[in-house]
Amino acid sequence: MIDSAPVLIIFGITGDLSKRKLLPAIYHLLSQDLLPKDVKIIGTSRREISLDELLSNVELCVLEEDNVCDPAGIAKLRAAMEVFKLDPVSDDNYTALSQHLDSLEAHERIFYMSLPPVAYAPIIERLSKHGLNDSRSRILLEKPFGYDENSAQELIDLVSEHYHEDQIYRIDHYLAKETAQNLLTFRLHNPIFTALWNSDHIERVHIEAAEKLGIENRADFYDKTGALRDLIQSHLMQLLALTLMDIPSHLKSHEIHLSKQYFLEQLMPADPKQALRAQYDGYRDAVGNPASPTETYALVHLKHSAERWQGVDIILETGKALPEKHTRIIVEFKAHAGQPANRLVFQVQPDEGISLDLFVKKPGFDNTMQKTMLDLTYETSFGDDKHIDAYERVIMDAMRADHALFASATEVMATWRVLQPILDAWENNSDGLTFYPMGAVPEATGNV
Ligand code: BG6
Question: Region 158-165: what's the mean pLDDT?
């Protein structure tokens, strides 16, 4: 629980992210009385939009996800929420916003940029000009944090000109997924694996995020972004760091970030020859760009320079329009004397769980070996325990000023640096781009 009641000011309240993720997450938190009673949510919008319209969108999204929508939860959201008409480039509007915030007497102000980063500059500059960057203020930023190494640095510089790093929360919602959070706890509290967590015993770490959906209605964004920037630079790099970084002695935000940064900074720059890209059939029509070189599938092999990880093959792989949606981290141990390899799998989503392949004798007269599995599923182990959505966690942690599950500037820069050679090699050309039918696995997978 959070003691004081902050104000959450959302820029981009009419956008897809607010509609599909943020407002439903706030609704869930309010329904369970997890936010302070007097919390205020202000949605800023350039165009006239009524609270009723916003709330009916939330109801639809919640119904679609949960099959039920609690009227009491919607009533709580209605009581907490208001719409504030604001033109992002009108100074007068920021003066009005500032006066309005003063009138609410809320101590903490949290500005949530639910917008593409190109829209940040005019807003951040004006917030700062109107004093809305003082010690009571925090700012939450959505990815992508830049487009490449240079633009990421520019974005970081722009924000840090107006806000201190302690006030900045860069959202990577994969860090807020329950199984991702379990990585450090699992590693810290299961010493049988600690001794094996190095290149003497681990052959390969493969992190895959497959999506069934295509690019949906994000043609413009996606065609400029592609799979490498959209998921590998952010979500998969963060999962990788949690999987292999040194475990800090305390799982406290500062220590976690230091260790993660140290790990990411020692990843070697990626070799473009060790990367694959592919595009699903029909993508070019969907984005209206007949020669688009944008990859909807990417696979990269990485190497780490620390002695602990030397020789370990690190594979990050993601794609859209694949046969199914799943995110998993596969840690493959070294096989001995022609025996099969044990694999430890963290199933991030769906059906969260952790499993270990074991090879045992099949019951019977013959001595036949069979692969089985030690299998922990969250469903059987934690039953009805409430499943917390990643965005609920993001909002909660921002309100209680806990930075642990957000990305730091140095982490962001380290990941761009690693991938920049591939970005350079893929820039404005389709060399090596292959194609795959929607709903199929690209053929070249794993052949690099
Ligand atoms: C977002 C990407 O960060 O993550 C999307 O921009 C992707 O392209 C989404 O679909 C996946 O998130 P989740 O939580 O559905 O796996």
Answer: 96
